């Protein structure tokens, strides 16, 4: 099955937003083994949309549309498709009652143009929208499959994953299932990871194994086809065990995990509290942890000590230490970590200091970063020598801190989650 | 002139990256008044690329390609176009010496496949690549214009802006120039801003005025065409004055300014130092300021006081105050701001507290945020009631803090920059 994704919306052609829907859908389709050969973007113009559909029908058998299902007069995707396919639009009562409920809940009257959103292509399978008003549609006609999805990513993404994808999976393989599982790694480059598991990558068939790198992380997506979910998971678990036997030390999580979410989970699970003293990151480490709901069970607080004087005044670091070793030093990172831990009365203290760039700092080249980890009686410092831009360096320092903290805790016998 | 943008690259069709190049180019073309009617994405496949070019030639007179100019055998954009247009490829000596220099600088030998990057379409105008090896190309043939750009955004963006755009501008208006200037607003919604300057929006011709909203900010892009740069700027300055006479109180910057960069600039310009005590934002305010190089001249440091106990221990806030008013209160935000300022010995102290969400906090609904501003003897608190997700709320709180701080400082007579 070959697919084309058609995004409808003048805001894309004006360069106001990027076509992230096509990226999302393509990624999802690749998990199903469906080839995407084209993306097209066209404005809110029925004539040009119709021509684009005609081009797509010549080269794809699955055509997925995003956008143009809303209540305004600019929204004309389904009207254009209805006219092109000669399929009438009919009112879907489930969608209508959902829209009416939406307005009732907010105590607002429903205007007539909102009723338009409940019109669907006759004979289609309606895809429920749990995050907005406009329903999606799935229609097979003349050997081709048409799928209509709403434009806002927060509506499109769950609708595709939970409504549309199961229909496509069923269609592709009536007696089977396809399951994907992502392994997440940190502290190893994509090239090195590929070399280490070269045999697995070279000899893959089912499951397939696909590497991808971004933002200093590397992921491996394992995708298995089987008759049942249980069998698919069995295939995935076998392959996962093979991979982790080789590069397991670098794995930190799976699927939607992030380094910060895993760090917070591990801290909470082990009943550990944490504090930090941050110089170059200036609060970024603590702020990233605080993105995770529930973090107040582990993050007590800490210090931003941007200047040398702040390190002395807030943390009680000795002036002599800073004079002797400088602020970008193992000794300074260690003192920051220990003093933050003691002042805040936490189990763990983190110290982050360095030269973010673009200029050298305290005689150290841009990208030199020292991180201190104070865990009970254990004190460890690590040096990073990064070559990125100022803010990439700051973010990498935070990611590395999470990754290395989890490894240190595991070495001390704390359970990974 | 009507344009189509064709991105070449299988990584786009696999959903590994979004087509941000099309967004960037579209935005740039809209400044020139060039309509973009289609974006197309196609893989690294010469047959399908050729078909896509044939479709584009029927509907566009400017066709811009991105990607596929590199040294590997997958890179075949220019080879396919050369064959399709029946134009030979010739070696560009300037590009070749640039590539040789690139390798010499790094002390590495140049492999033969890198030579391929110096081949260009015969008769084209070569677009220099100052951030990579593959040059771009501009070619007019049979009444159509073809532009080839490299895929990596850090190469494509400067090449488009500084090499390609001037050629297009010249082509559109031989004796004139087009200049764009962006005004940035915060604290006013897009709809309200449009209502306030409705007359200006309704009666625009030259300069044009285009509003755009994103991430809680609103921008107005003023674009003027004139015979000389001087005249274009005169037109822009007149229109800018008209707009700012109505909504000037909400404007914080222009062009590439951000709320944080303007805040740091204003603090540095006025010789003011700042500190903060952060609860729900947990360091995000200080970390965002620290994104700006040179911030150490104003940001001394501060506190992350995530728990109630941390507010008491680190900041010396009285337990009675927290018991009486709660941690999500004007009183708490005020005490955090004042105590941070005094403890850090700075001119300004900021206090941030609230319920980020998704759960209520201390009896206050998610999205309730209090910000304290302590500036010398002045103490002001402001309440926000936001309805976003947890991390949107945290980021909005930081943006609002910057915006409101600049207004408070201006009211006290400090110079805006």
Describe the 3D structure.
The structure is a homodimer of 417-residue chains. Chain A is α/β, with parallel strands linked by helices. Chain A has three domains: 2-172, MoaB/Mog-like domain (Molybdenum Cofactor Biosythetic Enzyme, Chain A, 3-Layer(aba) Sandwich); 177-254, 2-Layer Sandwich (Alpha-Beta Plaits), CATH 3.30.70; 259-411, CinA-like (Maf protein, Alpha-Beta Complex), CATH 3.90.950.20. Chain A contains 16 helices and 17 strands. Chain A has helices at 10-13, 20-31, 46-59, 77-85, 93-105, 112-115, 153-172, 190-196, 198-202, 229-247, 259-269, 284-289, 308-315, 319-325, 330-344, 390-411, and strands at residues 2-8, 35-42, 62-66, 89-91, 119-121, 125-127, 136-141, 144-149, 177-186, 208-214, 217-226, 251-254, 274-278, 299-305, 348-354, 368-375, 378-385. In chain A, the strands form four sheets. Chain A has a six-stranded mixed beta sheet, sandwiched between helices. A five-stranded mixed beta sheet of chain A has the order 14-13-15-16-17. In chain A, helix 2 packs parallel to helix 7 (153-172) and helix 3 (46-59) packs across helix 4 (77-85). Chain A is elongated, with a radius of gyration of 27 Å. At the A-B interface, helix 2, strand 2, helix 3, helix 12 and strand 14 of A face helix 2, strand 2, helix 3, helix 12 and strand 14 of B.
